[in-house]
Amino acid sequence: MNEIFRQARAFLVSLRLTVFLLALSIVLIFWATLAQVDLGVWGVQHRFFHAFVVSASVGGLQVPVFPGGYAIGGLLLANLLAGHIYRFKMGWRKTGIWIAHAGLILLLLGELVSGLVQKDYQMRLDEGETKNYAESGRLFELAVIDATDPKFDDVVAIPDSLLAHGTVVQSPKLPFRVVPKEYNANSAIQMRSQAPGAAPSLATVGMGTMVAVTPLDPTYKEDERNMPSAFVELAGPDGTLGTWLVSPLLGNPQKFDFAGRTWKLVMRPTRIYQPYSLTLEKFSHDVYPGTDIPKNFSSRVRINPPGGEPGREVLIYMNNPLRYAGLTYYQQSFDNNATILEVVRNPSWLAPYIACGAITLGLVIQFMIHLVGFARRRRA
Q1: Can you tell me the distance from the alpha carbon of 259 to that of 191, in angstroms, rounded to the nearest whole number?
Q2: Which of 271, 298, 328 is the last residue of a domain?
Q3: What is the pLDDT of residues 19-52, one digit of tens each?
Q4: Neighbour count for residue 14 (Cβ, 10 Å)
Q5: 204: helix, coil or strand?
């Protein structure tokens, strides 16, 4: 047992392991850079860097072929920690090395936390519009809305991942079960009158009876967006209420009455609600004189805290985001007179700044220690 422990320790603290992992990192980055042409930034992140293994399709099966970012980063972290414990000794002459390596460890841990918990959303605001939610650009949800009260909507949001796995959903707020029948990660929809050869629809009620659904391959390109669709059956205590087609391509919610209440069904981008709201006071789009080349675009927004407290105005522009209540609002783009803000939740956003500062400080301290020692020896 002791021999196995010594061999494992020697493996973890080995400098050869460090060089080998750095070489794997170079190959992974090069491969991901080439794949970005087809997958886009988001697809590359999830397939190569936010994964333990990189898989490839072989004979229709996904086969692991290369370690992913989590595996390489985790081994690098273990190698660095083991080297600290068994190689480096405490002493003031090693102060700079300890600080620099602590910064490197913080950098690796910060990236791990960001990859696991960071969430990205978008908020589109017209001038004068107020919103208290942002929407995902990639994820969707099926919203089952109790719209009986004209002043209040009681919403049950079902992530599309549950629809994709065929998970039956029974919420205490719903008098029926939601039973997924079919799910398409990307699709196109057209009227049945324009698709005479289309297969019969699974939908028995709602808009789905009048349209044809064509499944498409998922896309990962930055300028394209997946439009999912699903057939879901609503099953009440006394039997089925029918099968509905839901998709963001249908637009307006589909209404029906059941159990004395009015309900709406709609598939929409996943929303994140906040207790406060933002109002777009003014959007500015500046261009260089005599051209149509964008020079700057900015959004003046007012933060409306809950409880009717007085708000404050903030100017958001490039490289000057708004950080409020754990979220960061970046000026992403615009659409005519509407602004599009990128909303990011990342609890570890300070980690890279602190880590880089620690690494710089450690290197400077270590350099000064060696410089002072060299000067003393030179003087002697």
Answers
A1: 31
A2: 271
A3: 999 999 999 999 999 988 888 788 888 889 988 9
A4: 14
A5: coil
